[in-house]
Design a protein that fits this description.
There is one protein chain. The chain has helices at residues 23-34, 53-63, 67-80, 83-92, 96-116, and strands at 10-12, 17-20. It is mainly α and 123 residues long. It folds into two domains: 1-44, no CATH class; 48-116. Strands 1-2 form a two-stranded antiparallel sheet. Strand 1 (10-12) and strand 2 (17-20) form a beta hairpin. Helix 2 packs across helix 4 and helix 3 (67-80) crosses helix 5 (96-116). The longest helix has 21 residues, at 96-116.
């Protein structure tokens, strides 16, 4: 008796598109990559029109800074105005390198602050 193959299902919602649901879908994604098709996974950046004016102004303010200063500004924003605000600004910059560097730097800074405030033990 043959084993029944799982049919891939893709979940689509307003915030996430193309999220893989089963292991067989991961294989489908890998197959697509080897055949030159890019899988549609991830969360797209919000359209510029959907951003509050305050976020748009901050994007314009830091867009012309070098990457290092953009990342530092985004980290400062996350502690001053909140993580969601900083993420909206980071996505609005439309630069995956800055977004990745922001994530790396923020996790390091957050860890250090939690250790300093005795909310996390240093290993």
């Amino acid at each position: 008796m043959e084993k029944e193959l799982a049919i891939p299902k893709i979940i689509e919602s307003p915030t996430k598109t193309g999220i893989l649901e089963t292991e067989s879908e991961k294989l489908t994604e890998q197959s697509a990559e080897t055949h030159g098709e890019a899988p549609q996974v991830g969360v797209p950046a919000p359209a510029q029109d959907d951003q509050p004016p305050e976020v748009l102004n901050k994007i314009k303010e830091i867009k012309n800074l070098d990457q290092e200063h953009q990342v530092q500004t985004l980290c400062e924003l996350s502690f001053q105005k909140g993580l969601s605000y900083a993420i909206f600004v980071a996505r609005g910059l439309d630069n995956p390198h800055v977004l990745d560097a922001f994530h790396d730097t923020l996790t390091d800074e957050l860890r250090q602050r939690l250790i300093q405030e005795d909310k996390l033990e240093e290993l």
